[in-house]
Amino acid sequence: METGPAGADRIAFLGFGEAAQAFLKGWRTRPAFAARVVAYDVKTDSPDARVRDAKRADYAAACVEGGTSAPAALAGATLVFSVVTADQAEAAALAALPGLARDAFFFDCNSCAPQTKARSASQVEAAGGRYVDVAVMSPVHPRLHRAPLLISGPHAAAAAAALRALDMAPRVHEGPVGSSSAVKMIRSVMIKGLEALACECALAGRAAGVDAVVLASLDESFPGFDWKKRVAYMMERVMTHGVRRAAEMREAALTVDELGLDGAMSRGAVAWQQRIGALRLRAADGDSSDYRDLADRILAALDSHGETK
């Protein structure tokens, strides 16, 4: 079992969605990994039995123990990974603190504004834990546990050693809690904002019957970008993760606002991310590599919901 100063014999997850499952899958590719893993996801308390059962099925499929509550999941864990949605990150941390072991690392991997991270950090530190600001700098697939992590705060150096013991890929960003998240949030203004722009452009082009001409023109302006392929990828991401991305972009807008600027572009991205994500369309139900198929299904769904004129 991986134990000792940089290892862990019990790991806890707050939230057990795509990121948590990807990290765990990656860790288990290593023969030396034998830590006990406990997870708590708020979906197990959903009033909808289908939601509860689906999340418990995720626990069973991953061979993890499901905690009866957030504090119960954290009890005895030396490493805690918070991987919830951005809008729930602070509340999830506060709810879990009664179970936090003294000196346990609390890895806040959520896409939140620096000021949100700072509030969570003060609570975790007051409870005796060691808070680490973590910015996950790429999608977790296909890299799994090797997705690049930018970490900051007073415990960053020791935290990096603990993460490397799990074969993860941390890089210390010098600065206080929130500095890593500032990098992630400001980067998201462009990355998640570009996704929203791509959706608006492709949907409008498709509705007007000029999408092929528009994308061909963009290929001429930006040679080598392959707009058809990139737009399809970005639309699939918004269809699959739009609600979560909308929560992240609210935090991005807050980050820009707190810098004395106006996060209007980020709030515009929120609208498209939320609107498309809320449709709950499955990209895999059609040809997810063809932006036209994706756009047509989004337009049809918007029309059926009375969201087009």
In words, what does this structure look like?
With 309 residues, the protein is an alpha/beta fold. The protein folds into two domains: 10-177, NAD(P)-binding Rossmann-like Domain (Rossmann fold); 181-304, Orthogonal Bundle (N-(1-d-carboxylethyl)-l-norvaline Dehydrogenase, domain 2), CATH 1.10.1040. It contains eleven helices and eight strands. It has helices spanning 18-27, 49-62, 70-74, 89-96, 114-126, 156-165, 179-208, 211-221, 227-258, 264-277, 291-304; strands at residues 10-14, 36-40, 65-66, 79-82, 105-108, 130-136, 148-152, 169-172. Strands 3-2-1-4-5-6-7-8 form an eight-stranded mixed β-sheet, sandwiched between helices. The longest helix has 32 residues, at 227-258. It is globular and about 60 Å long.
Helix share bin: 40-55%
Class from secondary-structure proportions: alpha/beta
Low-confidence stretches: 1-7
CATH architecture of the largest domain: 3-Layer(aba) Sandwich
CATH topology of the largest domain: Rossmann fold
Please give the largest β-sheet: 8 strands, mixed
Strand order of the largest sheet: 3-2-1-4-5-6-7-8
The overall number of domains is 2
State the name of the first-level CATH class of the largest domain: Alpha Beta
Q: In CATH, what is the homologous superfamily of the largest domain?
A: NAD(P)-binding Rossmann-like Domain
Give the ordered list of helices and strands. EHEHEHEHEHEEHEHHHHH
What's the total number of strands?
A: 8
Mean pLDDT: 95
Proportion of residues in extended strands? 5-15%
Radius of gyration: 20 Å
Q: How far apart are the first and last residues' alpha carbons, in Å?
A: 60 Å
- How many helices does DSSP assign? 11
